[in-house]
Amino acid sequence: MYTIVSFHKILPQHLEDYITNMRICAAQSNKEPGCIRYEVMQDVDEPTLMCLTQIFRDEGAYQKHQVAEHHRAWMEISADWRDRSAHQRHLLRYITPEPKTPPSSTSTSPSPSLSV
Q: What percent of the residues of the chain are helix, what percent strand, and what percent coil, each to the nearest 5?
């Protein structure tokens, strides 16, 4: 598995746009065949701090995610929403047995579009 945990500080004036659009991006990412989990959590005491957890089947699946249309659109519209000085990214490996990966799910339902 390919697991990344990152922390992002969102500029306060973009917080609502970030949350709205990240929910859409996460839902679309979770539909990718190689995505096991794509989650975003908000710090309770510091609402502009987000924790992004991405778990992909392997590095190749992660690379496909990086060029997926919804991810590219997300990165384009949200490029100026983060405080770059507060970013942390960690590539992690298991020291305990890896969890079993669920079977891929495919959805034919239309996906919402990112919006500002």
A: 30, 30, 40
pLDDT, one tens digit for every residue, the chain (116 residues): 999 999 999 999 999 999 999 999 999 999 999 999 999 999 999 999 999 999 999 999 999 999 999 999 999 999 999 998 888 888 888 888 877 766 554 444 445 555 55
pTM higher than the cut 0.85: no
Neighbouring residues of 86: CB distance < 8 A, sequence distance ≥ 6: 7, 8, 9, 49
CB–CB of 111/24 below 8 Å? yes
Query: How many domains does the structure of the chain reveal?
Result: 1
What's 14's domain CATH number?
3.30.70.100
Domain that holds residue 61: 2-92
